[in-house]
Amino acid sequence: MLIIYILVALAAGLAVGYVLRKIQIANQVNSIEAKVSRSLDEAKSKEKEILLEAKSKAMEIVESGKKAEEEFRSQIIKVEERLARRETDLDRKLSENEKLKEEMSLKKTEIEKTKDEMRELKQRQLEQLQKISGFSVDEAKKVLLDATEKTLKEELTMLTHKLLNQAREDADKKAREIVALAIQRCASEVTSEQTTTAVSLPSEEMKGRIIGKEGRNIRTFEQMLGVEVIVDETPDAVVISGFNSVRRHIAKIALEKLIQDGRIHPAKIEEATEKAKKEVAEMIKEAGEAAVYELGIANFPPKLVQLIGRLRFRTSYGQNVLKHSVEMAKLAALMAEEIGADVQTVKQGALLHDIGKALDQDMEGTHVEIGKQIAKKFNLPEKIVNAIEAHHGDVEYTSIEAAIVDAADNISGARPGARRDSYENYVKRLEELENLAHSFEGVEKVYAIQAGREIRVFVSPTKVDDWAATKLARDIASKIEQDLKYPGEIRVMVIRETRVIEYAR
Q1: DSSP codes joined into one string, 428-493
Q2: Residue 183's pLDDT band (boundaries 50, 70, 90)?
Q3: How far apart are CA 250 and CA 274, in angstroms?
Q4: What superfamily does domain 424-496 belong to in CATH?
Q5: Which span out of 160-174, 194-208, 238-252 was modeled with the highest average pLDDT?
Q6: What pLDDT does residue 328 have?
Q7: CB-based burial of residue 240 (10 Å sphere; 0-12 exposed, 13-18 middle, 19+ buried)?
Q8: Helix crossing, 302-310 with 321-339: angle to 10°?
Q9: What is the DSSP secondary structure assignment for residue 364, as one 8-state letter?
Q10: Residue 193 carries which DSSP code?
């Protein structure tokens, strides 16, 4: 019986558990369905929000597009209005121009009419004047010229009297200048080109005084004058060394003054230097004035005359540049007179052809380039500028006067004794030039001309083309600059030509 109760109780428990489990499962299903329903509601709500936001942005884009379209249309309207205004203005201006043209044509007609009236009036006045004066036109001109001539004669007489009085006052100075010019014209000695100047000393004791305590005096002297003083074992002499010939001459005069005074110290050195500078400046001025006076050139400004005077202290190949320039000017003037060229132009061009050498020790560039700059600075005529830049064949002649200056330069430099260069050195320099050019491939013949200032190189046309000829000229020039020592410039000319020879028999 107990077993039955147990089984009944077990069955009842199972039934109750099953019912409870089914209720639990039903509750869970209801909970899940509620969650799903809420999720669907939330998704639908978000979907509506996204759609509303998208519609809002779309509306904004459409609105901005409409605004841009309206702005573009307004700009187009403004441009059209501006073009219309311009077109109206242009039509108005064209109309005004037409009216102005018509007015000018009328005024031109009126002017021509007025001119005719004035000519008629002038003719009537002349006829009336002839009747009143009783003179014809030619007779009236003669009377006027006679009166003018009389007036000019009186003025010239007064001017001549004034000039004579002035000449008497300056007679002593002019006489000395004439004597100095005569001495210069008769002088034939040419100063050798050098970079040192020897100064004689009264005794060996003077060397120690020149050096000074711990070298104080000699250092002061060298710093003030820009030169070097060489005190060696040469008896009773010291040597002044420097490339600038003007400074070297100033140093020579200053040292001679110090030696003559006997008192050598920094203060006296400064005093002697200032005196020497003034003395040399006066010498330069007198040399320039003497040169232009000797050649009859009166239109050079004082500063240019000062530069000409500096050439007194410059030499080239042992030939004094100022004397060489004056000699050139005389030769050029003779040639110009013979062929009918402008004598004054060739004189001025010859005197100034080496003016760049007056400053080439203080400025960069060749003396030709510096001379051209000086000529342009003083506004000299183009013919003189061309004569300066063409006297070494660097540029083409633009006038016969430039060619005469170049010819006179060659004649003056080629005169026997004008330039002191030994025959051996001259030949050696030419041989070095020719051998250097021969070392390049394709070169057939080489000729050094114009005393080594120009070298002409003939090349084989089959081995060297046009481009290679250009490069060859540049290479030869570079090689000369690297390997040789020479004064001035050397012109390198490479010639490439093809010759075809045939005989008719």
Answers
A1: HHHHHHHHHHHTSTTEEEEEEEGGGTEEEEEE-TTT--HHHHHHHHHHHHHHHHHH---SS--EEE
A2: very low
A3: 9
A4: K homology (KH) domain (3.30.300.20)
A5: 238-252
A6: 85
A7: buried
A8: 120
A9: S
A10: P
Structure tokens at 75: 């700009």
**Residues 493 and 455 sit within 8 Å (Cβ to Cβ):** yes
- C-beta separation of 212 from 222 below 8 A: no
Question: Both tokens of residue 415?
Answer: 């005169």
What pLDDT band is residue 192 in, cutting at 50, 70 and 90?
very low
Residues 45-85: pLDDT tens digits?
Answer: 888 888 888 888 888 888 888 888 888 888 888 888 888 88
- Where are the extended beta strands (E) located within 85-158? none
> What percentage of the chain reaches a pLDDT higher than 90?
2
In degrees rounded to 5, what are phi and psi of residue 444? -100, -50
Higher pLDDT, 267 or 492: 492
Q: What is the CB neighbour count within 10 angstroms for residue 2?
A: 6
CA distance 465 to 182: 58
- Joined together, the tokens standing for residue 141 give 């001109």
Q: What b-and-e string marks burial along 279-308, b requiring 16 or more CB atoms within 10 Å of the CB?
A: ebeebbbebbbbbbebbebeebeeebbbbb
pTM given for the model:
0.45
| Mean pLDDT, rounded, of the chain | 78
pLDDT of residue 140: 67
Report the DSSP beta bridge partners of residue 200: 237
CATH topology of domain 313-414: Hypothetical protein af1432 (1.10.3210)
Domain 184-281: CATH superfamily is K Homology domain, type 1 (3.30.1370.10)
Backbone phi and psi for residue 272, each to the nearest 5 degrees, phi listed first: -65, -35
| pLDDT digit string, tens, across residues 354-383 | 888 877 667 777 887 888 888 888 888 888
Neighbours of 245 (CB within 10 A): 20
Can you name the residues that pair with 273 across neighbouring β-strands?
Answer: none
- What gap in Å lies between CA 446 and CA 455, rounded to an integer? 7
E-strand spans in 236-277?
237-241
Longest Cα separation, the chain: 194
